[in-house]
Amino acid sequence: MFVSGNFKYMTTKYFIDIEQFSLTKYRKILEKSELLPGRRILYEKTKERFDFLTQYGITNLLMLVQSLKSPDKIKQLAKDTGIPTDYLIILKREVNRLLPKPVSIADFPDIDKSFIAKLNKKGIKNTLQLFERCDNKKKRTAFAQETDVPISVLEELTKLSDLSRIWGVGPIFCRIFYETGTDTIKKVANAKAKKLYDQLMETNRTKKYTKAKFTVKDVALCIDIANDLPKTIDI
Fold first, then answer.
1. Are residues 70 and 184 in the same domain?
2. Cα separation of 169 and 171, whole Å?
């Protein structure tokens, strides 16, 4: 277990196993990402700086997260590798995006509030909690009886929770993915970027979920991330 911000992450089937996620693989993902303007410093000498990290002995994301988890550790890493402190601070922020906090169930569009209230009474308020209770048919059947939430709703929320595990996909985009029929991590992993992009655009144009812009490159990155996530739900 390790800590990122105020949230504890474990290498469980909900998250990417960052101990098995190589630094080289992450560098390649970073180089393909559409970074926010404030994070584009990470495009500077990317391979050279990641080579310095590897030479220092950091070979996977777990080791990187641990090396960046406090200001003192960042300063020490900067001193030992020659990588600018500002670069490492931004790198820490970007790496943390790969392990997003679970999404509040209430933030998904088009979910009946009465069902959300019933789940809240059972202590199920976010996607991690729901995922752990509903990731297979037997669990969902039992939980439907326990909560009086229809199993069809639990299946929908399980799929949305599954999609929320993709880096950068918030509750609105989970809904858009779901509406295209590409409604699980496994389906995203097997999708073709341009075809899925067109489906997402058409769904959003019709249902007007968001004005946020996204590109084929963004969708391709989602597919890459989906391929590295455990595909564990039984629907």
1. no
2. 7
